[in-house]
């Protein structure tokens, strides 16, 4: 029996998972290699960080999602290199290094948080890209209220109760909104010495608007709603320094200001996984400033029609780093592979169909932009709810997520506040002189 | 206004939480100090480790549970010392040390895993006492299957697929049973190279029976059931060595054997929190080999009628380290404080009412011992289900736990398999020569 066409997929995010699914009926053997064992529904990470959902609900095991698709195997591994000449991928497991050959390769390793060259910010302002990040932030956010409760000095208590979110894209807006909900709705009554409603939530962005991708009307609506629920929105404001107990910002007029805050969250920038730069270098291709690979219009790596670079890792038509771009480019790559195997013409450019954008600001309030239609408020929130339920992978995750949403949105509780000793104690330790 | 009687409670487990609740209507001001922010329902930790429940479901925030009880404040802190002379408790937060005075003190800091003097075992065979432990074990258990899938060498694959549980009390039995369910029911179909049903689950105990507290009839039933679901039960077997890739055991006849296994779980012994020994020393009291304080019959520290040592920390009438002992001794201590404040006679001995014991072995199968009544099988499992739902704290945890149980017991999935990169990658790394 001749060996079937071998497809290796790197990554288990929206790009990797949907590429595998799109090849379900193709005459190929697929190996999906990813550094985590789960598919992560990143748009809801902020709900794990703020205690609404459990990690399992947004992170089903990749192999479980694909268990019935017999032409795919899922391997744990961090891909450390791709040899374009011999067509092999080298990956590292916790115990060994292994090499897997491919005929076609789909690179969907996604993106990491970017601190724009200031990696030292990361220790003090964690990003929001993984379950580890979300659990770390859960420990820091709930821990901040715990430590404010213990603080006799009102100045020090205030800096525990000042939360700074950097970046006013969907992740930052949703995070700021949820911290506000926590402090205004979920936590009052739980404390005896502090009033959680005294918490300040500051949302910072260098741009002049929040949610720029949504257009000026919705941006303004979102800003108003954020301010109504108590979020201080600071636009045209650049972050120039971050340390254990505060953040330095620079205003448009050039003046600088220090904000005392211990719990800071970085939702400002992303960079493509480093594998992108490595591939581009080997192929003689280019990357942009975010480390994304300048791919051909059909999402292939220049000079390598057998290698597709998709989702957050590709630079193409200034497409945004959202789930739909990853999903659609994955389907495009899968379609190209199927066409090639069927002897059909390939090389068709990837065309992105914008299905719209949505972001929740607080419970019952969201903004939705679909083509020329702009919606905000409760109806938009219902649409957000429906779409997110639909895209949550797997029946059982939808089932339990609804239970958790009912607890938080109809009730005002948080089912998943539990932060461990490690997360609360170890992560909130300050040095003596802080 | 005179200061009210101040009660300090150390610990937020069954002892600490139920002591606080029992003082709900008492004319006292309570400060509950605990090193975690949650009340942990320890009997279900094994379900967090094996992907059935989320951590939030068994660990509601202590301050949320007590939010309506206005005479209690909850503080985060690890108690480092008690000054019996000045009647103060010193605790450490992540950032500072603080001191709290008491008129009455209830010490309910619980127990830690004990390796019987072999603390070096801990790195290779984690215990099951905290959410951190359960999440670590989740990463190791699911990680073992992932790494077996990557292993070409069948001998090395086999040691990933050999799970050793040390200790055949309820925790060990339930853990072994659940790993068996994972390998036999939940995971087959997810893998392409290995068959999870090949996993060996070995349950080891130095005693001649499993679940000795349940009596010989149920012990035998439980052993039969375990063997039926594929657990190898090795009794009269002592652990004499544990390393990264195996465990050394000694049989009753003196012969030794090495079992190759990477994922090992320690459910063998507990020791009282070290605070017990410190208190005993300061009070001139004694501790037993497990570090429990030999208390007076009324659970007070000898010479200190204002200090109660309860639950897992007290040595009294050879009571077992179970939730009911903690709950009932907490209520007794609270009752003594109330009686004293009311000017009534105190010093009544604590009388434990044995409400019975139960342990699940697999879905639909449990053993229940209540007085002279012994039950096993499905009816016993329904009783287990009812009691655990009843004791899970808080409506919303019951609500979502039912959803998760339905997924795992009616279905065969695991909602909470998600182990993070940290948990899977970092925890399963072996050294080069292993």
TrEMBL record, chains A, B:
Its EC number is 1.6.5.9. The chain crosses the membrane at residues 375-393. It comes from the Bacteria. InterPro entries: FAD/NAD-bd_sf, FAD/NAD-binding_dom, NDH-2. It is an enzyme of class 1 (oxidoreductase). Residues 6-330 form the FAD/NAD(P)-binding domain. It catalyses: a quinone + NADH + H(+) = a quinol + NAD(+). Pfam families: Pyr_redox_2. Keywords: FAD, Flavoprotein, Membrane, NAD, Oxidoreductase, Transmembrane, Transmembrane helix. GO terms for molecular function: NADH dehydrogenase (quinone) (non-electrogenic) activity. Belongs to the NADH dehydrogenase family. This is NADH:ubiquinone reductase (non-electrogenic). It comes from Allocatelliglobosispora scoriae. The lineage of its organism: Bacteria, Bacillati, Actinomycetota, Actinomycetes, Micromonosporales.
